[in-house]
Amino acid sequence: MRTDSGRAKSGGQFVVDALGDSVNALLRIYTVSGRLVRSLESLGRHGQIQIPWDGLDHEGQALANGTYFFRVQLNARDPDGESSADRKAASEGRFVILNR
């Protein structure tokens, strides 16, 4: 894919395995300095949750080359569909963007 500026876009999917009940997932992407780049949500899923990402920040700009961190938080859904404050899990990781 290419953006209007002609730069190649990165992106893909974050995949999270969530066993059991339906969950709400919140994925946040950060720079190495801790600045929030983008937040993505997936609501009411179970099993293998795939969270698509277009490779852009919250302003629609492609990310620069470098290392980025992510944090995903899963919350079981209450009967009304809201995220449970008691039943939750979180994980962190990192990835690298290399545009040619």
Any descriptors?
Immunoglobulin-like, 4-stranded antiparallel β-sheet, 0% helix, mainly beta, 100 residues, 4 strands, 65% strand
Quick synopsis:
With 100 residues, the protein is mainly beta. 0% of the residues lie in helices and 65% in strands. A 4-stranded antiparallel β-sheet has the order 2-1-3-4, with no helix packed on it.
Low-confidence stretches: 1-7
- Coarse structural class: mainly beta
**How many structural units, i.e. domains?**
1
Total of DSSP H or I helical runs spanning 4+ residues: 0
What is the C-level CATH assignment? Mainly Beta
Q: What is the third-level CATH name, the topology?
A: Immunoglobulin-like
Major sheet: order of its strands? 2-1-3-4
> Distance N terminus to C terminus?
13 Å
Q: What fraction strand?
A: over 45%
Helix content: under 10%
CATH architecture: Sandwich
User: Gyration radius, to the nearest Å?
Assistant: 15 Å
Can you walk through the features of this model?
By secondary structure, this protein is mostly beta strands. It has one domain (12-97): Immunoglobulin-like (Sandwich), CATH 2.60.40.4070. It is built from no helices and four strands. It starts with 11 loop residues before the first strand and ends with a strand.
